[in-house]
Specification:
The chain is of the alpha/beta class. 38% of the residues lie in helices and 23% in strands. Helix 1 (2-15) runs antiparallel to helix 2 (18-24) and helix 3 packs parallel to helix 6. The two termini are 31 Å apart. Keywords: Methyltransferase, Mitochondrion, S-adenosyl-L-methionine, Transferase, Transit peptide.
């Protein structure tokens, strides 16, 4: 959570909104859509189209790519990125993964979804994205990760949560529990849910173990990136 707060602080400085954001962070604002709409609407430093909390696709690919091996062009691995925001994670998987993937990024901010669709379509001077594999696909959809009812149960082989639990939990653990429940509902029985966070395992693991009966829960260290060690919490079904 410390890294998420730092990233929000840096984004605010870049947009000249330090005082407003600092006041907002005093409450449970990280679960508030209005804050994210404002942040996603801000210009990005250096004209970079994506903005990552924690770290980007390049730093996570070593963990992700082995989970996507063996996919066939006729049946790409389905990947769900919950709370995708304007991160490079979904875009990186689509454009750089050598294995066929069908990636869906969902976020409750319509501003974020519109921005990512704009990147996908090559709008506003952006280079049109090309897939890393000819059979790969990428879509974005507005949806609340705590209620993924439009998505069928067991329909994704890989579900990614990069900081979304951290943000939702600021609004209370019941919301975070609903998020976990929905991620596991749409995950295939042989699939993997990965939560990326800087939260200590002593805090996160008990929550995941309690909320994921029948699933295997493990943790791996990532980084350090920019001086911060992160954790990848893997919730997996039978392999």
């Amino acid at each position: 959570m410390a890294a998420l707060r730092r990233a929000l602080h840096e984004a605010a400085l870049a947009a000249g909104t330090r005082r407003t954001l600092a006041g907002s962070l005093a409450g449970s604002c990280l679960a508030d859509r209005g804050l994210w709409d404002k942040l996603h609407a801000q210009p990005r430093p250096g004209g970079v189209p994506t903005f990552d909390w924690f770290f980007g696709y390049e730093d996570a690919q070593g963990l992700l790519l082995p989970l996507l091996r063996g996919a066939q062009a006729a049946c790409p691995r389905r990947v769900l990125d919950v709370g995708c925001g304007t991160s490079s994670l979904s875009v990186g998987l689509y454009a750089k993964c050598p294995h066929p993937v069908d990636v869906l990024g969902v976020d409750f901010s319509p501003v974020a979804v519109a921005h990512m669709n704009n990147i996908l379509e090559g709008g506003q001077g952006q280079t049109l994205l090309s897939p890393g594999h000819p059979a790969s696909r990428l879509r974005f959809m507005q949806a609340d990760a705590r209620n993924l009812e439009p998505l069928a149960s067991g329909s994704f082989q890989l579900v990614l949560d990069k900081g979304t639990w951290d943000a939702v939990a600021r609004g209370g653990l019941p919301g975070a529990s609903r998020l976990l429940s929905e991620c596991l509902r749409v995950l295939s029985p042989q699939g993997t849910l990965i939560q990326f966070s800087d939260e200590d395992p002593d805090v996160r693991l008990p929550c995941l173990e309690q909320g994921s009966p029948g699933w295997s829960v493990t943790v791996q260290e990532l980084g350090p990136f920019k001086g911060i060690t992160y954790f990848a919490y893997l919730v997996q079904g039978s392999q």
